[in-house]
Design goal:
Layout (H helix, E strand, L loop, with lengths): L14 H12 L12 H8 L4 E5 L7 E8 L3 H8 L11 E8 L7 E7 L6 E10 L1 H6 L4 E8 L9 H7 L2 E3 L2 E12 L2 E11 L6 H9 L2 H14 L6
Parallel strand pairs: 5-7
Antiparallel strand pairs: 1-2, 2-9, 3-4, 4-5, 5-6, 6-8, 8-9
């Protein structure tokens, strides 16, 4: 069992509380294959670490995961995750383009371009979905947003996205999710899962980096965007 109160979380709910709150909603996740994060990872996350790992779920691609606790209210972190327009300034993405749907809303289709230093740049088109049933059922205390690449992504490109795409290589497949649990007192438990096939002849280590997206840096970037505020309402 977890200790009743973690350092830094004395006035907020414990991670144990958060796991209990989230448990009834995990069966309703939009991301179909979700690895089990070890309980000791949550203990370390509660003490300020970004804990990462990878899991073999029997699929071709391994899924990488990360978990941490951020000193950001769940509403603000949620707004950052859905703020595609601001992400180039707070992540490794060089360009993001809304192709269809409404900004910040579920069901939107987005072009994303990643500047890669050692190989050709990569791009992909994903549909981003918010778990609205989870959001409403938990009164906003538990949230999930997912992404999954579209097989007909190239046909969806607008002229500006086509210009960017010509400079890079399309990623054959990528999917993942963010899962948030409200700890109260302005703190949020954050879980991240991703799997990606970067395409081409790519060393195993680099392929893993595509999937993880440098998880610690990704967490930090979204935290900074959440605190700065962007184009999506909390």
């Amino acid at each position: 069992m977890f200790v009743a109160c973690w350092w830094g979380l004395a006035s907020a709910g414990t991670v144990d509380d958060a796991l209990a709150l989230a448990e009834p909603y995990r069966s309703g996740r939009l991301l179909g294959s979700v690895p089990t994060i070890p309980r000791d990872a949550y203990e370390r996350a509660a003490n300020g670490e970004v804990v990462t790992g990878n899991a073999d779920t029997g699929e071709k691609l391994k899924r990488v995961w990360g978990v941490t606790v951020v000193d950001v209210p769940i509403d603000r972190f949620w707004a950052a995750l859905n703020d595609d327009e601001s992400k180039p300034g707070y992540s490794d993405l060089a360009h993001v383009e809304l192709l269809s749907g409404d900004a910040c809303q579920t069901g939107r289709v987005v072009f994303q371009y990643l500047d890669v230093s050692v190989l050709s740049d990569r791009w992909w088109v994903v549909e981003q979905r918010q778990n609205t049933a989870m959001l409403s059922g938990s009164s906003g205390k538990v949230r999930e947003v997912t992404w999954r690449s579209l097989t007909d992504g190239e046909s969806r490109l607008n002229e500006q996205a086509k210009t960017w795409a010509k400079k890079g290589t399309q990623v054959p497949f990528t999917e993942g999710a963010w899962f948030l649990v409200d700890l109260g007192e302005g703190k949020t438990l954050v879980e991240y899962v991703a799997a990606s096939d970067p395409g081409g002849i790519v060393p195993a280590g680099l392929a893993a980096s595509f999937a993880s997206g440098s998880i610690a840096n990704t967490f930090e970037g979204m935290k900074k965007l959440a605190l700065a505020g962007g184009h999506c309402s909390p």
